[in-house]
Amino acid sequence: MAKESYDYVVIGSGAAGSIVAKRLGEDPAVRVLVLEAGPSDNSVFVRMPAALSFPLTDKRRIWSFDTGPEPELGPRHVTHVRGKMFGGSGSLNGMVYVRGNPRDFDRWARDFNLPEWSYAHCLPYFKRLENFDGGGNEYRGSEGPIRITTMKAQHELFRAFLEAGQQAGHPLNADYNAFRQEGVHAYQANIDHGIRASSGRQYLRPALSKGNVHLKLNALVHRVLFDKRRAVGVRFEQNGAIHEVFSEREVIVCGGAFNTPHVLLLSGVGPKAELAAVGIETAIDLPGVGKGIQDHIAVSVKYRAARKGVSPGVNMNLFKMAAVGAQWLFLRSGLGATNLWETGSFFKSSERAEYANIQHEFLPVLGELSHGSVTAEDGFVYQTCLALPRSRGAVTLTSADPRVLPKVVLNYLAERQDQIDLMDGIRHTDEIVHQSAWDRLRGKPVDPGLYKMSDTDLLSWLRKNVNTQYHPCSSCRMGSDDMAVVDSDGKVHGAEALRIVDASVMPRITNANLHSPVMMVAEKLSDAIRGKAPLAPQKVTYA
What we know:
The protein has helices spanning 15-24, 44-47, 102-111, 119-129, 156-167, 199-208, 256-266, 272-277, 318-331, 416-433, 455-465, 515-530, and strands spanning 5-11, 32-35, 62-70, 76-83, 130-132, 146-150, 183-186, 188-189, 191-192, 195-196, 213-216, 219-227, 230-238, 241-253, 269-270, 284-285, 291-293, 297-305, 343-347, 358-363, 379-386, 393-396, 407-409, 442-445, 467-468, 498-500. It is of the alpha+beta class and 543 residues long. The protein has a domain at 152-186 and 297-388 and 413-465: Cholesterol Oxidase, domain 2, CATH 3.30.410.40. Strands 1, 2, 11, 12, 13, 14 and 26 form a 7-stranded mixed β-sheet that branches. Strand 3 (62-70) and strand 4 form a beta hairpin.
């Protein structure tokens, strides 16, 4: 049998992998193979923004990680869903487009000896990927592949959210991805004229038409193949058969914060003692693999509405659902074209915080659409996220079988300051809901008296109710210290021809949704892989 080889083998077709494959494939002489563990994204429930809850329950298209037990949560287990299809998690996420605070990247540069990852160095790459509907300027890009749409936020519940936030002292912010992040705002979303604009759709699909970028779906990676310390290929399973494919230049792992450390550990790259415990021979003793993982936790402050019929999407019968579907199908408008998270805010939990460490994602209906539920009642939800957690956890192997998912513990609320910050954020959230803008619409709280609770009672409530915001990162982080896994160009320490490009390399979590910064990381590291000079840093002022 002929030996199948490519210049580059990319593991994963998600937010990062799609971008890397597209950028590498811009050279017609370069041959790229992308291995994706799941099926295609060819589903109306993937393309339609309002249908985002349905892919979360499609077992063919998700990785379902049972994380925990979480020591500070009871100990509870938390189900964590990741995308397992063309486009990865970008094909099932909430499409909320937030870069993170500029200070996040300046802290990367300062705290991890990564001067080329400051905000000035990252900004040009954010701009390169964006096609912002507000137009290009010193902060924003307007010619990139990812369409960024500012949500209209016209429903009366959205208007009440914006007004109440201002009454509570938060400014109205026209563009939280520009000069100032803090304040209340209409969200921006990677939605292209009513269709989900994932990097799979916007980057990888056009690249596949060029002929030098190839894709294998339903290909479960078993391990990276090594010749001594050099990565030379990948072993994977497809349709029950085991295959090997070889790389002439590099293997690039883009599996995300759970799957990337899993693949490395299965390949013998990780802490030697842990690998030996499951019978895996060590290729490269690298103690930081899987260590230091972070995630955003969130908890919902829920209120019923003062009157029936106020929330969109409630009491949907077959006729109403058909009407929504038809309006989206033919006009790309209406309820089907929104991700429902059209407003939000960033603020500091207290004056002790250096910058915004709490994020609101507002849902104009009483339900938990982000966790796969399709039930809906009249009401509203302030999903309150701890945006800058200090707690870190780990991804570890329980088996050498690649079909067995790794053990993941995030250690939510393990740091006392995380508990304090989130409690302060919840109390202020309830204060916002009691502003006069909500008087006509606010019914009874689902959980009464949160802002009056003692620390003991409020912390007990948090431990029972917090859940994931689905933003894991930092499990194979960049740096030069003993626990760093990759250098500033994504090269795995101690290995040759092996690189990581995804959320796992982020040194520390950013203070908002990770899809945008992951795409920026992929754009920036794509230049490093190609040996191109990085885009010139751009210094701008920010609040």
